[in-house]
Amino acid sequence: MSGMPLLEVEDLHVTFRTASGPVHAVDGVSFTMKPGSSLGVVGESGSGKSVTARALLRLFAITDDVQISGAVHFDGQDLLRIDERRLRDVRGGQIGMIFQDPLTSLNPLMAVGEQIAESLRLHRGMSRSEAAAEAVELLARVGIADPEQRATELPSSFSGGMRQRVMISLAIACRPRLLIADEPTTALDVTVQAEILLLLDELRRSEGMALMLITHDFGVVAATCDDVQVMYAGKLVEKASMAHLFDRANHPYTEGLLRLVPRFEDAHTGRLHPIPGQPPITGGGGSSCAFAPRCSYAVDRCRSEVPPEVAVGPQHLSACWLATDRAKDNTEAGQPWRRAQ
Amino acid sequence: MSVLEVDDVVVEFDTDAGRITAVDGVSLHLATGETLGLVGESGCGKSTLARAIMQLVPMQRGSVRLEGTDLGSLSRRELRRMRHRIQMVFQDPRGSLDPRMNVSTLIGEPLRVHGIGDRASRAKAVAEAMELVGLPVAVADRLPSELSGGQQQRVGIARAIVTDPAVLVCDEPVSALDVSIQAQIINVLDELRDELDLAMLFIAHDLSVVRHLSDRVAVMYLGQIVETGTASEVFGEPRHPYTHGLISSVPRADAESAARLQTARRMVLGELPSLLDPPSGCRYRTRCPYATAQCAEAEPPPEPVGRAGGLHMVRCHHWRTIVSAAPEPQESATSQELAI
Ligand SMILES: Nc1ncnc2c1ncn2[C@@H]1O[C@H](COP(=O)(O)OP(=O)(O)OP(=O)(O)O)[C@@H](O)[C@H]1O
Ligand SMILES: Nc1ncnc2c1ncn2[C@@H]1O[C@H](COP(=O)(O)OP(=O)(O)O)[C@@H](O)[C@H]1O
Ligand code: SF4
Ligand code: SF4
Ligand SMILES: [Mg+2]
Ligand SMILES: [Mg+2]
Fold this sequence. Notes:
heterodimer, A: 341 residues, alpha/beta, Rossmann fold, 12 strands, 22% strand, B: 340 residues, 2 domains, eight-stranded mixed sheet, four-stranded antiparallel sheet, binds adenosine-5'-triphosphate, binds adenosine-5'-diphosphate, binds iron/sulfur cluster, binds magnesium ion
């Protein structure tokens, strides 16, 4: 079984119909994850990271006018095609999710221990007393001191970092094989972020679960993930191992993201290099490279044809017409984003 | 000469659970054209200090001098007349703008409130401010809801600089913005500081951004400044265990990233104590791996670090014996090296 992917997403498309026209939030995304692997998904706001994650579990609001196509193979079934009841078993069962704002995903009126216990009864068929004991156990597992006492408290009495720990304990309660974490630390202090990232990493190793971590911060990916994929306008524009990406970022968008942020180890090195313009609000779906209007390398072809994914190294794909040339330049001259700093 | 001198400021609040000291004897100074970065975990008192400097919360003790004038000694009318010399930029660009006013009205508002100039000179000042922050003329008639997040924050900054202030206090001005927009706004602030010779107090929780923008840095913990110095002193050779922990917590896009977080966990153990019941002696002792009995008994005084007359200051009893291991990748210190 070990060679088999745990998750295999094939040509996923998600389109919202809105008053101002269709939004192609996810535009042909394919990727696989092995059991126990870790994958970071990076991109600007609106690039389609969260919608991708939500589409895997069809987690959309009733009010969303949404169309999904493609396939999401997980554990021998296509999650896009199984019925709602079986999907409910998968959600919070074999696939756990945590979100940026823990408060909105916890029930404010129920003691946290009870919330965890409820999930355990639902997904693992535990008795009331078994579930209560296991809930305390789980709170201890995610580093909450005095778990018996804390289990009886409401979410409002927890600090931001503690709430995120509670969310994590809830997400891992049913020993998921895949944990999807959508910006789990964005609202937290760096110190608390460090603890949460370490916790996620430890849990991944000890529970053997795969981790998909959505973030806008390459530093967060570097600390927790082996692989990374960069998303822009609903497409995965670059996929690589994180170690490989340090030295050989290929796609101009990835280069832009890496140059955008000040690096801590650099003292003031002049102005930053924002990527000009903004991502398209209608997502993907065009007949050109969606990044062309903002890309300083764009050539004519970029504006008339969608660039295909090209292999530019081992396990390294880049969807850019210049990918092959850029890969050659990279090895000869080092990283353009480092050179420019 | 310092345009802003903050001396021994104390701010207390009465809460339902009791009295807390949110700012506990903070002193700092700012010269023209200089940026001081203020960092620390949420709840440590950064915003309260900013509001005390702006005279928006009462101080129990201490003074704030702006261009030589003690703001606390002024009558309300006199204070209003001084206000245009010190302005503030807030975190939430949208929430700080009146949704019914258009861009040019919003930017001109501080001028009208302070009765500065006539109609024509105000219009000119608004146009100049818009240009300085990179707002196109075309958006002058738009409402805040019709602007992107980055444009909204540019309006917030334009409002702050339109009165030609000497000091700009920025409280988390980029925290609510997307990464690419953050970079634009940071550049705007960077350029303004140079062009207008502003003194800037820059509060942010992103240490990389603070290091990028700041000449000097102050690290705050439970209402006190525990370390201050030039950005390269504080971030390159941190002396306080808390500073060291903060720095190690910053996730960086390199191969050492995961290892550094382990250091962070050692240096910043557990949670921030409550301000209702702050630890005796050194306030950091409940999280500090080097704490001794002395740390529980006596509050460490501010001590100068390094050369005489330098600006590097630290509040820790044991800073001399704690090896300063700049947490750079090459020398990612092990626990043995760090232990005294
Ligand atoms: N319910 C919805 N109805 C219509 N459009 C939507 C809906 N949800 C998301 N979108 C659009 O889909 C695109 C992708 O959104 P998504 O939330 O996946 O972005 P993201 O990459 O997660 O961004 P962020 O970093 O801000 O979280 C955006 O253009 C967004 O406006
Ligand atoms: N108006 C207020 N009344 C009571 N407590 C307050 C008030 N403003 C701030 N505080 C408290 O003062 C402390 C410092 O807060 P703040 O200055 O906002 O921190 P920071 O900006 O560093 O996150 C916190 O404990 C906060 O809850
Ligand atoms: S395909 Fe063209 S426009 Fe798109 S990223 Fe590559 S060079 Fe830039
Ligand atoms: S004074 Fe003691 S407890 Fe405080 S930081 Fe220094 S070593 Fe740690
Ligand atoms: Mg999102
Ligand atoms: Mg604040």
